[in-house]
Amino acid sequence: MTTQTPIRIAFCITELDPGGAEQTLVQLVTRLDRSEWEPQVFCLGPEGALVQPIRDAGIPIMCFGATGIVDSFVVFRLASQLEKFRPAVLQSFLFHANIMGRIAAKLSRVPVVVSGIRVAERRSRWPLRIDRWTNSLVDQNVAVSQSVANFTIDSANLSEKKVTVIPNGVDCRRFKAAIPTDLISEFGIPADDRVLLFVGRLEHQKAPELLMQSAPSILTEFNDCHLLLVGEGPMATELAEEAKLSAFSHRIHFAGRRKDVPSLMRASTLLLSPSRWEGMPNVVLEAMAAGLPVVATDVEGVAELIEDSVSGWLVGPNSAQKFASALIEVLKTPHNLPHVATTAQTIVSERFTYEAMTQRYTSLYRDLLSEIP
To answer: I want to staple 279 with a disulfide (CB 3.0 to 4.6 A). Which of 50, 105, 119, 125 is the partner?
Structure first.
């Protein structure tokens, strides 16, 4: 009986610090069937926190340590390593890895190249132009949501035939089974008070300042509510100073980066996601899996997860007033929360698991490889 040799597949990503795309790569690469696939990971940047779970799974990984936005030598180092590994497929994640990976794959003659499109890029037009100029080097683009696919096709003028939608996944069991954090001992939040949780990078895209602008009206209306912000980023100092000057400083808490997000979700009342743009926010999927109802801006990917007033609540983006008004209405009807939470939890457990995500990726790889002469 002949044993089939596993197909070599390379994964390339810009960095491996904790983040949505990075978590997706880790889950995908560690869940591949090793009897069919032989994976290896290449990271353009220095080693990050998510390197270890890849190594623990016995998967070779190489970090090139590039620190600038564009390291002119990393593309040649990547090409050299790809030539040694000789993969049948290169899958890249995040913009810089997509571009460097395409060029390196061309230099090293990798047969199949797949790029991951994780977000609707609204910060600048240049990434969209560069994506369009180099997309002839790509066999297929994977968009994380249909709205991101539509945005990319329209804005970057990519061929619709070269864009496939594969949604993110989530470890439903991990979030559902997490033990709630003791918020009294850590943050001084009374056991019966309600916690409005934000989890994400403190930056313009995630719009945490809209929560600070909403806080006075919400915290005035509800004496039992606290705002808890989890994450780091360029706006952290500014937001913390603003909170100190607020009359509600004792009810606005900053937790920094945390490893116990599932437990914090299980201890909270609502997840707040005020983003200006997204792809398919992992934090929303995670909250749904944890049974934590979500109030989120209706940006890319969110409406593909949440049906308004059924499995969460949707709000128009870029308006602190709209967000506050919607949140106040939700908090006035706490009896609705358990049903919404259960509905959301059922949706993710049926449609957005890591197992389903991995199956979709491997099916795509098989289809693309079958087209090679």
So the answer is: 119
